[in-house]
Amino acid sequence: MYRKLVLICFTLVLVQGIASATQYAYQVNFSNKNGSPAFSDSLSILSHRALSRRAAQGLTLDSTDLPVPRAYLDSVVRLTGGKIHEVSRWLNLCVVLISDSTRIHTLSGKSFIQSTRLVGYYAGTLHKGAIQSVEDQKQPAPKTTGGATYYDQTWTQTLMVKGNYLHDLGFKATGKMIAVIDAGFIYTDTHPGFDSLRSSGRIAETHNFTLDTSFVYGYDIHGTSVLSTMAGYVPDTYVGSAPLATYALYVTEDDNSEQPIELINMLCAAERADSLGADIISSSLGYNTFDDPADDLHFTTDCDGKSTIAAKAANMATKKGILFVASAGNEGGNSWNMVLTPGDADSALTIGSVNTSAIAVGSSGYGPNAAGQIKPDVCGLGHYASVFSSTGYNSEDGTSLSTPQIAGWAACLLQGAPHSTPSQLRRAIVQCADHYSSPDSHIGYGIPDFSCAAIALNVLDTPTPNPNSF
Predict the structure, then answer these.
(1) Given pLDDT bands bounded at 50, 70 and 90, which one contains residue 290?
(2) Of 42, 94, 404, 435, which shows the fewest CB atoms inside 10 Å?
(3) Quick one: average pLDDT of 158-183?
(4) pLDDT by residue (tens digit) across 338-386?
(5) What pTM does this model have?
(6) Strand pairing of 238-239 and 233-234?
(7) In whole angstroms, what is the distance from residue 291 CA to residue 258 CA?
(8) Is the pLDDT of residue 14 over 50?
(9) Who has greater pLDDT, 449 or 44?
(10) CA distances (Å), 273 to each of 71, 212, 316, 346, in order?
């Protein structure tokens, strides 16, 4: 099976027991939100931190913040005999799991139902128990601040974007929350490079949207590699771009198949990040083709920055005051060649990959998106980028690794300029990139300079207390 996950450097197959029943996953779109609770109950929808983030940007609640009416969900369950897998208030839809596909027709003609669509098929029950031990899984295939000594293995990728300037000022993303949407986080709960993250309680939340469980420390090591470029913190050995940030770890990818439901998983993860109060979302996943060719995307009509569910998730997150950082993908040079979704999204800060000579890597996805918008926006080091291995350190390739680096530096920048909106952050990063005056379809606006971006946003030279710290 050919995967369209952006740089799955090393994929682990989830080993699970034989399931008892077939399941069909249907996307159910609702026609309205009649009967939804009033905004006065907003604290049940959004955390205090989330409301504070919006207030700081002058954002108000709107209809997309209202939950899907409980009566609608109850009716879907009653009529289909199924189980609700996930719900999106932003797009007013749910995914229901049913064992008999004909039961979806029981929703036909109901006034509150707009449409239904098959988005996943499982030969067994989807909601199985999570694997709790690394030993139960197939093992992966081989794969003074400011100076080289302090950063050691991450010095090259740090210096390339002048991220050390922000750390030197004291901005290491303290009080900022980054939601990481990925495929799995094997070893994140044991790797010594994450000792600081774990011991200080800076993992705010974990959730697996694929299996509806809080367990995320299995399935794949891809998310661990991604996370390490931001959260790794072993001074004089390895220092990530946002070593003191708080993190939410979300699994949305299913390594056993490639189906449209994974885009809805991503949407629901973005909504959960919003509710939790995340400042930045980093996603190193990207999509274009699926197991069923009928579900495949068509670049010219689908990747226009606003049409796919993944792109809608990125754009909506931005409207809620969250900077959405997405990878361009690694399809450069093949038959697709272009950026993947959600990297095509209008408002996403889309990241490509360069090598140590600051030259775009051939496999980095090309732009523009189908609407002609320049993509990628900027690039980071994605060729021989330093990451965590099972217990030590390694180097890997791909936009999956350049993306979180930039997301982490953006979090540091936001700490220094806490009232900046996503568009202001993105503009500062883009305008301070080395190809800003002559962007192209492969490197976008080029490699950002975070010392320049800090000056552009009038970053203070001393961190101030953050009232919204987790």
Answers:
(1) very high
(2) 42
(3) 97
(4) 999 999 999 999 999 999 999 999 999 999 999 999 999 999 999 999 9
(5) 0.89
(6) antiparallel
(7) 5
(8) no
(9) 449
(10) 25, 16, 12, 19
Residues in Cβ contact with 262 at an 8 Å cutoff, skipping those fewer than 6 apart? 210, 252, 253, 254, 285, 287
Report how far residue 288's alpha carbon sits from residue 311's, in angstroms, rounded to the nearest whole number. Answer: 12
State the pLDDT at residue 464. Answer: 52
The single-letter code of the amino acid at 122 is Y
Tokens 């919003």 belong to residue: 274
Give percent above pLDDT 70 in the chain.
88
Concatenated DSSP letters of 279-342: SEEEE---BS--SSGGG---HHHHTTTTSSHHHHHHHHHHHTT-EEEEE--S-TTSSS-BPPBT
Neighbours of 457 (CB within 10 A): 20
Structure tokens at 110: 């109901």
pLDDT at 2 over 50: no
Distance, first Cα to last Cα, the chain: 41
Rounded distance, CA 108 to CA 87, Å?
19
61 C-beta neighbours (distance < 10 Å), count: 14
Does residue 422 have a cis peptide bond before it, meaning omega lies within 30 degrees of 0?
no
Q: Which two tokens stand for residue 465?
A: 């207390």
